[in-house]
Amino acid sequence: MMKCAIIATDQGGIIEVINKDTGIIVDGSISSLEEAMERLILDKELRDRLANNVYKYTKDNFSWEVTAKKILVDMELEKK
Asked: Residue 15: how many CB atoms within 10 A of its CB?
């Protein structure tokens, strides 16, 4: 939500949010992290695009408003 480009490893549920459109997935090695950091440092357009995409994705799917609506829908379904 801070509009920052993301570099992450494929651990846990990360790939549910971070993909080629929303960030850079690395294998955890120092060289892959170094390469990803260098790409983002040198490519402002890529850095801005990834930052904006991940912001929009998280806002549209994980904001408090969206989460509250999902909970209310689930509660209504449980009543039925």
From this structure: 13
Residue 6's nearest CA partner among 49, 66, 42, 60 is: 49
pTM: 0.80
Q: What is the DSSP letter of 19?
A: S
The token pair at 79 is: 């009543």
Whole-angstrom CA distances from 80 to 14, 32, 68, 77 are 33, 50, 19, 5
Provide mean pLDDT across the span 55-73. Answer: 90
Q: Is 20 exposed, middle or buried (0-12, 13-18, 19+ CB in 10 A)?
A: exposed
- The angle at the Cα of 63, spanning 68 to 52, to the nearest 5 degrees, equals 160
